[in-house]
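Q: I'm a student working through a structural biology exercise. My instructor gave each of us a protein and asked us to get a predicted structure, then write a short paragraph describing it. Mine is Lysine ketoglutarate reductase trans-splicing related 1. I'm not confident about reading structure output yet, so if you can add a plain explanation after the tokens, that would really help. Here is the sequence I was given:
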Amino acid sequence: MNFLRSKGAPQSLCICPSKVANLFLVYPRWYAKRFLHPDIVARYDYIFIWDEDLGVEHFNAEAYIKLVRKHGLEISQPGLEPDKGLTWQMTKRRGDQEVHKVTEERPGWCSDPHLPPCAAFVEIMATVFSRDAWRCVWHMIQNDLVHGWGLDFALRKCVEPAHEKIGVVDSQWIVHQVIPSLGNQGKAENGKAPWEGVRARCRKEWGMFQTRLTDAEKAYYLEHGITPPKSTVA
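A: Happy to help. First, here is the predicted structure for Lysine ketoglutarate reductase trans-splicing related 1. I'll explain a few features afterward.
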């Protein structure tokens, strides 16, 4: 497989082609929203939207795609090395299987075993989308919400059944190197550390994203004369 740097995008990498699929790898997310309209990347079978601080010594893209197809995954990510940069149990690499689609989280974190973060969930860090899934997800990315919090919980709306078509590939795994990023670029205010201001902004953006998603769904149901469920976001 050849990794070719795109001339027009210094932060993107085109993988074209491999033996198993045509792939497109790009970061950051706001570049993907601006330039990777689903029609533009329709020639690609899979779209990789990855952060730049990932160790890939144990990752092979062709083997990964074979497993994605074998297990019917439309949205996926490689398992994360459990000793570094781990936030969710779902993304933790398991050494005894090829793929997992469900996990157990901390008590009270999952209202339903088929809902995030216990299932139908991957993290916005090293996500891989099928062509069809990307056509849906692209519309949910909000460029003014730079941290992207909340998007990973909403990915399930783009595939059905989500708890079967979203999962983590354990046998092809990566390491989150936790290189300082936006989370370290805040300003100290009122005696609070810089990262605390960034974290507060992340939470605010998450709330804004949920509000927008809820409003969009309500408008959709109203337009089509459908009675909405009590909650469409959780």
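A: Here are two points you could use in your paragraph. Residues 185 and 194 are 7 Å apart (CA to CA). The chain has six helices and nine strands. It's a good idea to check both against the output above yourself.
Q: Great, thank you!
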